């Protein structure tokens, strides 16, 4: 699969809350997730956090997906059942190497997520 197809499948798996399938698309070694208020150095840690968010996930809407070689860029709406925050707009930069997502860098309004979590953010592991 091409990098864009890999990322599209990953997003579809997260949308469907199929985290085991999503995990299979992430690099087992050297994976890194960086967001405005958290960082994970393991795909398991990042997906454990994502599993915790499943309870409030209403939908994940892919608005735009584009690629430039191994770099794939997505614009998403993360729709929630958590009325105080509503929807979170995300810009995500993926880097795909050897048919696996190696790095994920997410850009969003961190204050919204911090307020939702009451300031209890996970640390890198």
From TrEMBL:
Record-linked SUPFAM superfamilies: NTF2-like
Gene3D superfamilies: 3.10.450.50
Protein's organism: Marinobacter subterrani
Annotated protein name in UniProt: Nuclear transport factor 2 family protein
């Amino acid at each position: 699969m091409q990098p864009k197809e890999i990322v599209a499948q990953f997003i579809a798996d997260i949308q469907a809350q199929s985290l085991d399938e999503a995990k299979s698309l992430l690099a087992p070694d050297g994976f890194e997730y960086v967001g405005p208020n958290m960082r994970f150095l393991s795909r398991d840690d990042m997906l454990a956090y994502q599993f915790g968010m499943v309870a409030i996930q209403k939908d994940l809407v892919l608005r735009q997906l584009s690629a430039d070689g191994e770099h794939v860029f997505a614009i998403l709406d993360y729709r929630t059942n958590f009325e105080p925050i509503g929807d979170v707009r995300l810009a995500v930069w993926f880097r795909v190497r050897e048919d696996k997502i190696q790095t994920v860098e997410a850009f969003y309004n961190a204050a919204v997520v911090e307020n939702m979590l009451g300031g209890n953010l996970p640390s890198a592991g």
